Amino acid sequence: MDNARDILNFFTFFVPSKASSSVLPLHLPRVPAAESEQRQLHGLPGRTIVAIGHSYGGCTSTLAALTNPKLLSSLILVDPVLVKPLRPTDSRRHTDGLTLGALSRREVWNSKEEALNLFKKSPFFSAWHPEVLKLYVECGLYDTTDSQTGRPITRLKMPGLQEAVVFVEIHTENEVYHRVRDLDVNITLRWVMPGKAGAGEFGPPGSTQQRVWLRPTNASNIRIPNAGHLIAQEAPQELANDISGFLQVKYPFVRKDRMEKSRL
Question: Where in the chain are the domains?
């Protein structure tokens, strides 16, 4: 819920009125109050906003679109966590597993090099595209010093406790599952789903097919072969190609010489 609020606040109060190829400041200034009021009513004139969200990001992007559909033109949902409410015991069992996994996750290494080498030996991380794994180590970890010994260490940027807090909150994913059928039909939906044999589903068998047709109007979907839930990590090129193809078909007015080649 907090993430959906942050998305709405960003587009309503901070996104520049005009697109620019220049480097933007780290902290964007607020737009004038009168413009923010107009955005809440009419969206961003002259701007076409496409939200791309994976997992919980897909869930909260959808909630943001439900709250103010004027802000977004399309939603690309990469196996979003939209979950049909199950029996309380079933939901708790799934949530407990994710929470315990986050709380027990290692957070400190001697160096980024050590972390990368260990990740490569992990069944979980070894399924990732090698370049994505390198980027994860580069951007998801940071070098610091041990507060007690003063020796150099490498630490995970997202502490396990903060990740566990996200897993514990299951009401939003249930709410969005029920509400997505009421999403404004002017917002195009593109579902990108796992295609790996035996890939898990959010819910009982057949839940994936049910989810992608919750709002059938102005919607399409695709399965990415050999990818599980972590599509962006396991099949980045295939995902990028699908996003690029969707954008070129949906928005043909964008000059092809300005459409950057898909790459992650």
Answer: 2-83+171-258, 88-165
And the tokens for 238? 């295939």
Q: Is the pLDDT of residue 244 over 50?
A: yes
227: which residues sit within 8 A by CB, 6+ positions away? Answer: 194, 195, 196, 199, 234, 235, 238, 239
Residues 6+ apart with CB under 8 A from 95: 167, 168, 170
Mean pLDDT of the chain: 90
Are the CB atoms for 223 and 193 separated by under 8 Å?
A: yes
Where would I find the beta strands (DSSP E) of the chain? 50-54, 74-78, 108-109, 141-145, 152-156, 188-194, 219-224
Other CB atoms within a 10 A radius of the CB of residue 197 amount to: 8
pLDDT at 200: 80
Is the CB of residue 121 less than 8 Å from the CB of residue 106?
no
Angle at 137 between CA 263 and CA 170, to 5 degrees: 85
Please give the CATH topology (third level) of the domain spanning 2-83+171-258.
Rossmann fold (3.40.50)
Per-residue pLDDT reduced to its tens digit, 70-85: 999 999 999 999 988 7
pLDDT score of 90? 57
**Partners of 50 in beta bridges:** 74
What's the pLDDT score for residue 207?
87
Tokens of 116: 């990368």
